[in-house]
Amino acid sequence: MNKSSTGIEGFDTITGGGLPTARTSLIFGGPGSGKTIFALQALVNGARQFNEPGLFVTFEENSREILANAKSFGWDLDSLEKSGLFFLDARTSPDVVKAGSFNLESMLATLGAKIQEIGARRIVFDSLDVLLTLLDDPNAARSESYRISDWLTDNELTGLITIRAPGWDPLLNQPFAFLQFLADCLIHLDHATHDRVSLRTLRVVKYRGTQFAENEFPISIGRNGMEVASF
Question: Is 196 exposed, middle or buried (0-12, 13-18, 19+ CB in 10 A)?
């Protein structure tokens, strides 16, 4: 199992090296748990530290807002955008989807051209659940998800997909629970309060083909981004 370092302190330790290379990882959790930060940080570090350019596809937030928020961590995304990173707004109107005008193949073709242009090795599909919800058809959602998974495999990309899945058992009875079987690495982020104290945690639920630390670990989000306490 080849692994791609995320550069996120602690996470690479508990996974023995990072995310599975050229395979798909699913990051899920409730609002404010740090899903987008984790994915973006792994992408930024890939371009900045490991010479692995990346693509960031957002289905919910405006990419300009994501870039603005990232500046608080001191990441020089402006210079990385010129060579190592590409951001794509893939937010889609419900009317477009219902009218049948949405074409995932067209978007993937655009991304394919960008892969060749910048030599991308990593990609993030942020808030994929937003798109799948708009499809309003379980069979279509499953079909499009597997289309993305096959596309990632064909292009030998290290893929990160984030979805919202709150609750005590986040993927139980969720409409997109099938995604956990599609992914090679499954990461749960949680944000809760205990005795009125905010606590964020990370747990690697599964990681095919390798050993990993299965416990729940505290995480913090500070000036430099996310850190995992891997003690």
Answer: exposed
